[in-house]
Design a protein that fits this description.
Length: 129
């Protein structure tokens, strides 16, 4: 059973999960090709097995190759990781997290994005969230 997506992962395991999510599914060789400062092929296979044992990946057999697939959709994993980030770094305060995002976005955030955020806040108020 997956606890919080990415919450119990090492830096290297998160890198692997990011690659698999980006492609939807990946072989050990494909992961190895995209990892920064990659370890050996055997180490990548061991990490993929570990991620499977932790419940983050499953595999399908394609001939002699294993093709690894995430057990959670990217959206569910993203929400879970964000929830953990807000809990860890912002004491559970979504408002503090949004304020920090707005602060680091600076002038790069467009009027359209600000309008979209304002509409989302208005909708959340109407829904009593």
């Amino acid at each position: 059973m997956v606890k919080e997506a990415h919450a119990d992962l090492s830096r290297r395991e998160r890198q692997i999960m990011d690659i698999v999510y980006r492609h939807g599914k990946s072989t050990a060789a494909e992961v190895l090709d995209e990892l920064p400062d990659p370890p050996g092929y055997s180490a990548v296979r061991a990490l993929l097995r570990l991620l499977e044992n932790k419940g983050h990946l499953t595999h399908e057999q394609d001939g002699t190759r294993y093709v690894y697939v995430p057990t959670l959709s990217r959206d569910k994993a993203r929400r879970s990781a964000l929830k953990q980030l807000v809990k860890t770094f912002f004491d559970g305060s979504s408002a503090s997290a949004v304020a920090a995002l707005l602060d680091i976005s600076g002038p790069e955030i467009s009027e359209e994005e600000l309008d979209r955020l304002a509409k989302m806040i208005d909708q959340a108020k109407r829904e009593g969230r």
